[in-house]
Specification:
By secondary structure, the protein is mostly helical. The protein is built from eleven helices and four strands; from the N terminus they run ααααααααββββααα. The model has no long low-confidence stretch (mean pLDDT 87).
């Protein structure tokens, strides 16, 4: 296993796809932060806005990297050759996952580092305490690990680069759309204004406050929060919106999802016919 991992990492540093997504993550972070900085109200923007600006795109970058990397391993028969020299399916699967996970964490780290440096360069300040920042950075590391587990599970059971990439993107869009529904529903407040009128003479005029029929509470709210928190896309959206109220439980949910994704990928891979 140690030799297998060493060989896998040795190939990783030589792979063009890794350095390609490395550049995308670095340059994309600066571009995203600059756009966000120019569009935001300067009095309200902080370093955290910069740090998590690129985060919603990270899943797509991980999907591209992992599907292309593992797809190449299958198309060039590298996976099959590992079986021929005596490695088991368990060793091969987890060696590939560990390599992709470490690479994804490095990419996530580059995004966080570049964005933080850019925010400080713009003379912005932190709104969160240092221990809150440590927790959020740890959550980002786990998010990268969960995405890696998900896309490794897909790619190791699909095979080709094109099919793996399509399947990964479709899956990511699906869980992103699902989570967006629940996160948007949770953002509804308990009360709303009955009417809002904008006039040239008096500006904005608000009506009376009334109960919001779209507000969710009770057990339904608990379920919505659970779904929004347990999926990595939900955590990503909340971080991007600077909503950290339930961040303390995100690591636990991420570990649960990591185990589920790993088992869901490993079990069918053990029975897959690889030629």
């Amino acid at each position: 296993m140690r030799k297998l991992l060493a060989a896998s990492f040795s190939r990783l540093w030589k792979e063009k796809i890794f350095w390609f997504v490395f550049l995308i993550m670095s340059i994309g972070s600066v571009c995203c932060d600059w756009i966000g900085y120019n569009e935001a109200t300067k009095a309200q923007i902080c370093v955290e806005n910069m740090i998590f600006c690129m985060l919603p795109m990270s899943g797509f970058i991980f999907a591209l990297f992992i599907s292309m990397r593992l797809g190449t391993e299958f198309e060039e028969h590298t996976i099959r050759n590992k079986f021929i020299v005596g490695y088991s399916r368990t060793q091969v699967y987890f060696a590939e996952y560990i390599t992709c996970m470490v690479a994804s964490v490095i990419l996530m780290g580059i995004m966080l580092l570049v964005s933080t440096a850019f925010g400080l360069f713009l003379s912005l300040e932190f709104q969160s305490s240092w221990h809150e920042l440590v927790l959020l950075i740890f959550c980002c590391v786990l998010i990268a690990s969960v995405f890696s587990a998900m896309f490794t599970a897909i790619s190791m059971n699909v095979g080709s680069k094109a099919a793996s990439l399509i399947a990964s993107i479709v899956f990511l869009f699906a869980i992103l759309l699902v989570v967006s529904f629940f996160v948007n529903a949770l953002e509804e407040g308990p009360v709303v204004y009955s009417d809002v009128v904008i006039t040239a003479e008096n500006g904005v005029q608000f009506g009376d406050l009334i109960e919001n029929p779209a507000y969710i509470d009770g057990m339904q709210r608990t379920v919505y929060e659970l779904i929004a928190d347990i999926l990595p896309t939900g955590q990503v959206i909340q971080m991007n919106n600077l909503e950290f109220e339930r961040a303390a439980r995100w690591p636990v949910f991420s570990l649960i999802m990591l185990i589920i994704a790993t088992v869901a990928g490993y079990i069918p891979f053990r029975k897959r016919d690889i030629r």
